[in-house]
Specification:
Strand content: 5-15%
Largest sheet: 5 strands, parallel
Number of helices: 16
Order of helices and strands: HEHEHEHEHEHEHHEHHHHHHHH
Number of domains: 3
Distance between the termini: 55 Å
CATH class of the largest domain: Alpha Beta
Number of strands: 7
Helix content: 55-70%
Radius of gyration: 25 Å
Strand order of the largest sheet: 2-3-4-1-5
CATH topology of the largest domain: Rossmann fold
CATH architecture of the largest domain: 3-Layer(aba) Sandwich
Length: 348
């Protein structure tokens, strides 16, 4: 199994494998990896040697292209995108396994899962495909989302390459208000560098140039509540309604912060660290959320958590009942949660 880093190193050394299986959570990283393999194999504009297929194609056509000699080139690159390995018939899947295990000398075969989700841990079919690829010198490449820490380091390094300084702390802030999506961050960083040109990218510059995402505003709402910042939480709620956010989306974000705290509380009681508990709850690489929840727990005890969940359940019933204004319900919830956090008591 190759990572983003090992794939990049392998390609830079000139080693192009006969078969690649590209999958994972992060669309941007998958597209980037796909383009890197293509560029090392053929000219991206060479329509004679860059052949693309989508799921639904007769696999015999893919086989024929892989077996045909490249036109005025050493190799050709054949891509099969979004083959539904779980939904395919047994016959179709067996043909695909045979295709992957053929290993053509003059072609690179890329099985690309751009939109179709694949389970690297549990899918027996995927494991068979990976095994078939490895038998002929190929490999699977798993490209999942980077953690916020990794993204912050990447932003700082990218800014430095362009002659500017972006501190790790300000990079984290940029992720907080923009997004954890790499393509969005790359665009926002380009805007910042074009605006600033040289020197340090400060928080003030980020606020004046970057576009705050709806997701970031939603995420920030729960943070303001746990900080006890009533004015800040109300301001964010105002921004969210201005952006026509679904009230239930805002509610579920607030709820998720308290669910994570309860998980962290359970982890502490069981003597487990956040990483272990993240595995127990199938949170993938999002163990950092439980690490943050551990910090938030310093303001809470069992009683405060219980009262907070009572307030959340009550608000959810009201929101789903459509009997009251959703904004008023959320405003009341914010006040109740902050009051509970500060006093350890509930209010009606």
């Amino acid at each position: 199994m190759l990572s983003e880093k090992t794939l990049k190193s392998s390609l830079e050394s000139g080693a192009v494998l006969p078969v690649y299986i590209l999958g994972g959570e992060d669309i941007y990283l998958k597209k980037q990896a796909l383009n890197r393999i293509i560029e090392k194999t053929v000219d991206p504009d060479d329509e004679m040697n860059l052949i693309k297929f989508s799921y639904g194609i007769d696999l015999q056509e893919v086989y024929n292209e892989l077996g045909a000699f490249p036109v005025m080139s050493d190799k050709k690159c054949v891509i099969l995108s979004d083959f539904d390995i779980e939904g395919a018939t047994k016959t179709e899947f067996e043909k695909l396994c045979e295709l992957v295990s053929s290993g053509f000398d003059t072609a690179v075969f890329i099985l690309y899962f751009g939109s179709v989700e694949i389970d690297f841990k549990k899918s027996s079919r995927l494991k068979r495909l990976i095994s078939a690829a490895e038998q002929v010198g190929g490999a699977a490449v798993r490209l999942d989302h980077k953690t916020n820490g990794e993204l912050a380091r990447w932003l700082s390094a990218s800014a430095k390459k362009r002659g500017l300084e972006l501190s790790f702390k300000n990079a984290e802030y940029m992720i907080e208000i923009c997004s954890s999506d790499i393509s969005v961050l790359n665009t926002e960083l380009s805007k910042l560098c074009a605006f600033k040109k040289s020197g340090e990218i400060t928080r003030e510059v980020i606020d004046s140039v970057c576009v705050k995402s709806v997701e970031a505003s939603v995420y920030g709402l729960s943070s303001k509540i746990i900080m006890g910042d009533t004015a800040g939480a109300m301001k964010l709620l105002d921004e969210l309604f201005f952006m026509n956010i679904d009230p239930m989306a805002a509610f579920y974000n607030i709820s998720s912060a308290f669910v994570d705290m309860y998980r962290a509380y359970a982890a502490k009681a069981a003597g487990k660290n956040p990483e272990a508990m993240a595995q127990d709850f199938n949170m993938g690489n999002k163990g950092f959320l439980l690490e943050k929840a551990v910090l938030n727990l310093r303001k809470y005890d069992e009683n405060k958590l219980e009262l907070s969940f009572d307030a959340l359940i009550s608000a959810e019933r009201e929101l789903k009942g459509y009997s009251s204004d959703s904004r008023i319900i959320l405003e009341k919830l914010i006040v109740k949660l902050i009051y509970i956090m500060k006093t350890g008591e509930a209010i009606d």
